[in-house]
Amino acid sequence: MNTEAKTFHTAGQISDFPAQLGRVVTIEGIEIAVFHLSNGDICAVENHNPHPKGGPLAEGIVSGHYVYDPLYDWKIDLYTGQVQEPDTSAVQVFPVKTENNTVFIVV
Questions:
Q1: Among 55, 56, 53, 49, which Cα is nearest to 23's?
Q2: pTM, 2 dp
Q3: Which residues 6+ apart lie within 8 Å of 17 measured at CB?
Q4: What are the Cα distances from residue 10, in Å, to 31, 36, 40, 50?
Q5: What is the pLDDT of residues 49-90, one digit of tens each?
Q6: Hey, which CATH number is domain 8-106, 3.50.50.60, 2.102.10.10, 1.10.10.10, 3.40.50.620?
Q7: DSSP one-letter code for 47
């Protein structure tokens, strides 16, 4: 994704995002699930499972850099957005940067 033409929006302070838990932020009308991984990385993906019936990803269980969807147990890579086999599909991933303990997300 070309972030040069996009705007970084403040999502909150790093401390607003507890490790291994998802938190929802809304930026420009888009619900984004933000995850603070145990390795310190912050990942942001759309807060909507790609399953036809949908579901909130922020409520999923985080393990490593994956979130397990709370409704369908789909394993989703938080870096790429790819749903792991045997399921297929993907969620949108949003670029994240941190600066001075503040989390910024590009939408």
A1: 56
A2: 0.91
A3: 23, 34, 35, 36, 42, 103
A4: 14, 15, 18, 26
A5: 888 788 899 999 999 999 998 888 899 999 999 999 988 899
A6: 2.102.10.10
A7: S
